[in-house]
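Dear Dr. L.,

I hope this message finds you well. Following up on our conversation about the binding site, I have prepared a predicted three-dimensional model of the protein together with S-adenosylmethionine. For your records, I am including the exact sequence and ligand specification that went into the calculation, followed by the structure tokens. Please feel free to forward this to your student if that is useful.
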Amino acid sequence: MPNVNLQNKLKKTAHILNKYLPLISQSDLAVISGSEINHKWITGLMKLDRDDLVRFDAQREHTLLNDPEWLELVDDIEDLSRFRKVEVNEIELKTFGNVKKQHELKQLYFFMSEDSGKSVADFGGGVGNLAYFLEGELEMKVTVLEKDLALIDKGKKKLSKMNSQVLFNHCHVCSNSSTANLENIEVAVGLHTCGNFATDMFRTCMENKIQKIINLGCCYSKIKDDDYNLSVHSDKSISFNERALSSAIQSFNKVPVEFYKYRERIMKFKLSFHHWLFSEHSHLAFCSMSNARKSLYENSFGDYVQICLSKFFTEIMVPDKKNVELFYQSERNTYLNEYFSAFYALRRYLGKLVEIYILCDRALFLEENGYSVDIVEVFNPAISPRCNAIVATKI
Ligand SMILES: C[S@@+](CC[C@H](N)C(=O)[O-])C[C@H]1O[C@@H](n2cnc3c(N)ncnc32)[C@H](O)[C@@H]1O
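The resulting structure of the complex is given below.
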């Protein structure tokens, strides 16, 4: 039986995306260089006082933007993002890792219990944490497929001390020439398969006629070669740029106000730095500073610029700190920061549509290749945001 519900979700999501995609596709550099999108919702959010903007964004009080079109859209997004939830009971389990990992393992225990005792391939299984858990709690015979040899070596060392029978297979799963050995494998699981790894996993499983596939994707911004619009029900006219894809990997839940403020400070510093580079040096290119430590953002903006220049732009002369502080407070920079705060807040609602679209498209692609499919909310999105699993069983 085709999953009509997923087909309808895909079609409706495509319809909405066609209207609002420009709002999530806009690059920060386009805004900095003066060609920003003007939209009534951005203007509306910029008019909110600061406390209300924090409530709108961090506490997801979306009705603070009181526009009928917006309210209807958020209702639609909530409706589209509703999937069947996995049922769990209270039970003592030997989980490990941080809070997120422990939660994921516990949920997967219930989700995968109907397959206990089966042989499983864990795609991108890293050091074998999930594999060890499935072996111990669900008596599964697990093979980890992993491309990173260092992780395999570490995992082998660790698990051999624990008397584990988990096997490790060093391989790079790809869509055409996979070295994965899937003989006798009944179930394939892929937890947080980034970018194209998810679709490469599907193709490998289809080729090897794997009975059951469980997949949770992540890092959609790493999708290369436009590897979406796979289903016949997809809208081939939809094209996601990297910006749109990255909007799908955010958390779409409430966050503590303290976290919001920290995140906002990072955003303001980074974007003001790029704005300064553009204004003072006509430099308009994105420079990733993602590995920066938290303490970097405890500096004044003047110090921050000096540190960034000495790290990433040694050819640029270090400016006078006072002038940089004045630049930060300038009318144009203040306007840009307010614009970005509003724009990012909107993206944290709209990005969900991109994720729903990709998930439904992937699931229906499997259906069209001989599987019965569903999407199930396995994790609590507040703990593990990439919470929806595609489940496909060979017909
Ligand atoms: C985001 S991590 C997830 C690890 C683990 N499944 C988890 O959830 O904690 C993705 C893992 O997949 C591995 N990986 C990515 N692409 C792969 C490929 N094409 N073939 C095999 N392994 C891959 C990476 O090396 C990494 O260990």
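In brief: The pocket of S-adenosylmethionine is lined by residues 124-126, 145-148, 151, 172-174, 191-192, 194, 197, 200, 218 (CB under 6 Å).

With kind regards,
A. P.
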